[in-house]
Design goal:
alpha+beta; five-stranded mixed sheet; two-stranded antiparallel ribbon; 6 helices; about 50% helix; about 20% strand; globular
């Protein structure tokens, strides 16, 4: 009984520490653009600013506001994902993944990233907006944290009675322990804050959406750099059509 109490206290402390760290990081992420905007205003108005200086100040303030909007939108989406599903309807992961790749095609082309895809229809029951955001975040991360001239591969299909999405990309070397930490909001690697153009909420939203749909997610570091991410959900029966394949497993879309 004492052992169970001790484990319960340790788990409570871990949750409280995690919540404290999340709150502190979220506050910092919002405080930074506020300081940027306040500084731009104070420095510019300390004197007789020209029109050019006022326009530059307005640009700085607008950039800070847009950053705060992205943070708040990410936090709201994360909260919505953790609150459960507001809508439940059949969603084909293949169609959603194909649309996400189409939307990101221009950015991948500019970065010189070669894209491979293998889509087999596979349906899940869930919130289409959350699933679209989840896959969109995965595609965005695979491009954002790739290397120039790199590769990414996206595949969907049934495997062992589950609906599976796999996405891999090339990129910097990541240790196995670091890969798991990428699912934590605002954190990167060994508990350090993310200082990139991203907000550090992308994969935490992916995990929250996955759990809301009774799914599972694994993040593995690739030997040559980059990540292999697999998400799977309980599968719905799918009516076979010309695109369907009678298969019991999803083939890997290998990267060089």
């Amino acid at each position: 009984m004492l052992d169970r109490i001790q484990r319960g206290v340790a788990e409570r402390d871990r949750i409280l520490d995690s919540q404290w760290l999340f709150t502190a990081n979220a506050a910092h992420e919002l405080r930074t653009p506020l300081i940027t905007a306040r500084t731009a205003i104070d420095v510019t108005l300390d004197g007789h600013p020209s029109r050019a200086e006022l326009l530059a100040m307005a640009g700085d303030v607008r950039g800070a506001v847009e950053h705060m909007q992205r943070v708040l939108n990410g936090l709201l989406l994360l909260a919505r994902s953790q609150a459960g599903l507001a809508a439940r309807e059949p969603v084909d992961l293949a169609a959603v993944a194909a649309a996400a790749l189409d939307a990101a095609g221009a950015r991948a082309a500019v970065a010189g990233i070669a894209v491979r895809s293998e889509f087999q229809p596979t349906s899940v029951t869930g919130d289409p907006i959350l699933l679209e955001r989840m896959i969109g975040n995965l595609v965005d991360n695979a491009i954002r944290y790739n290397r120039p001239g790199g590769h990414m591969a996206v595949a969907t299909g049934p495997a062992d009675g589950r609906a599976v999405l796999r996405i891999s990309n090339t990129g910097r070397h990541i240790s196995p322990g670091e890969a798991e930490k990428l699912l934590e909001p605002f954190l990167h690697g060994q508990g350090t804050r993310i200082r990139t153009e991203g907000l550090g909420l992308g994969l935490s939203i992916v995990r929250a959406v996955t759990l809301a749909h009774q799914g599972r997610i694994t993040v593995d570091a690739r030997t040559g750099g980059g990540l292999d991410i697999t998400v799977d959900f309980p599968q719905n029966p799918v009516t076979k059509d010309a695109r369907s394949q009678d298969t019991d497993s999803l083939q890997e879309t290998a990267l060089p």
